[in-house]
Amino acid sequence: MSRLVVVSNRVPVPDTSKKAPAGGLAVALKAALDERGGIWMGWSGQSSGEDEPGELKINEDGKITYALTDLTDRDVDEYYHGFANRVLWPICHYRLDLADYGRKEMTGYFRVNRFFASRLQPLLKPDDIIWVHDYHLIPLASELRRMGVKNRIGFFLHIPLPPADVLFAMPVHEEILRNLAEYDLVGFQTDHDLANFAGALVREGLGEKLDDNTLSSFGRQFRAGHYPIGIETAAFAAYARRAVQNALVRKAAESLEGRELIIGVDRLDYSKGITQRLDAYEQFINANPHRQGNVSYLQVTPKSRSDVPEYEAMQRMVAEQAGRVNGALGTVDWVPIRYINRSVARPVLAGLYRIARVGLVTPLRDGMNLVAKEYVAAQNPEDPGVLILSRFAGAARELTGALLVNPYDVEGTAQAIEQALAMPLEERRNRWRQMMDYLLVNDVMHWCEDFLDDLINLSPGHPHSTGVTHEPIQ
């Protein structure tokens, strides 16, 4: 059996001191690596300063070799904070106004991918299966191919891929598409993302679609498909059942004093629609006086990418908005919004999902959104809550039992909150059952096996190459 080599920007090295289970993605990839044996390589998250990155850090854990590398300060600034998170991230989330393109940062992005390839190539065996993850590492296959690597290489994009009119605003969009074409299998979260990718190649005259899953571009034929990522559904449901006995969860439930709980959980990011959601909640309270004092909204928003100016500004904006709503609507014995700007332990979060009558998941754009799936999995089957979900989250393509909303429509979202709180028990059960049955079948292990089966069953190397090459970006 061929080894599996996983490459991601960050690597969740096992920490035996932590009692809480890892997230679903880490669980699935670790299980696949445990089965086949292999390597998980990526950035350590550490900077070596202005000097060289230092030696590759190797950590053996059973059949898995964790290989981590530091980056220099320059690398972190240009590759991670620069091109990846100030160009690719905003453009892929349809925020052209926030994209800050600079040639220096673009060059750093390709340089660091070349560096990753140089560190990975000596570790590879001829029959290894390589699986690369997310927007940070799009050029990795191209760099490995230049080094003579002929292994099967797959890529999965965890974030959305925008349509051509948005993608083409990026000055190096053709190079990004060319790099994706160097993979043997390219995976997306939804059929919409896949259609956007194929449409961009065809519209720009860079390739053609040969059938539903085969594309020809830049002298190569390769496969592409959509593989909606799941969670560890059954395990998370069991975890949530136990979590309601957590001391902090019980304390939170007691503090509600019989009020219904609405919960939102998001990393602090402009793509999550947090300010629009706060507006909708405020409008919901103003439009439904009978709910004043009888419902509490908990927004958990850990800090994110604090070194990026847009995120610093957003942190202030959200805090000020929550404070304004509380000042305008709160009373001596009722705080409308409970806003937490830090991480919450996973046992506590699972328990809070379970006691919340409404899960409010309204990103402006999201590749999938696993919070929506965790909220569904955490519910009590006898008395489940209601998921309100943005139609612009990838999860909306699967969770058809949710109340779908347009997050830009503040009034419509406010009305959905009232609809969710007023929903009869039987309807809540039916909606939840439909979603839960789907999630139990289409869990994260199914996602992992589905992608790897398709990648493994391809012919090795790049069998359809015409020998077309191009010079690396300097």
Structural class based on helices, strands and sheet pairing? alpha/beta
The averaged pLDDT comes out at 92
Strand coverage percent: 15-25%
CATH topology label of the largest domain = Rossmann fold
Number of structural units classed as domains: 2
- What is the CATH homology-level superfamily of the largest domain? Glycogen Phosphorylase B
**What is the CATH-assigned architecture of the largest domain?**
3-Layer(aba) Sandwich
Pick out the low-confidence regions.
460-470
Say how many strands there are.
16
Helix content: 40-55%
Distance between the termini: 38 Å
Q: What is the chains' assembly state?
A: single chain
Q: Please state how the strands of the largest beta sheet are arranged side by side.
A: 3-4-2-1-5-6-7-10-9-8
Question: With helices defined by DSSP (H or I, 4 residues minimum), what is the helix count?
Answer: 16
- Globular, elongated, flat, extended or rod-shaped: what is the shape? globular
- Please give the largest β-sheet: 10 strands, mixed
Gyration radius over CA: 23 Å
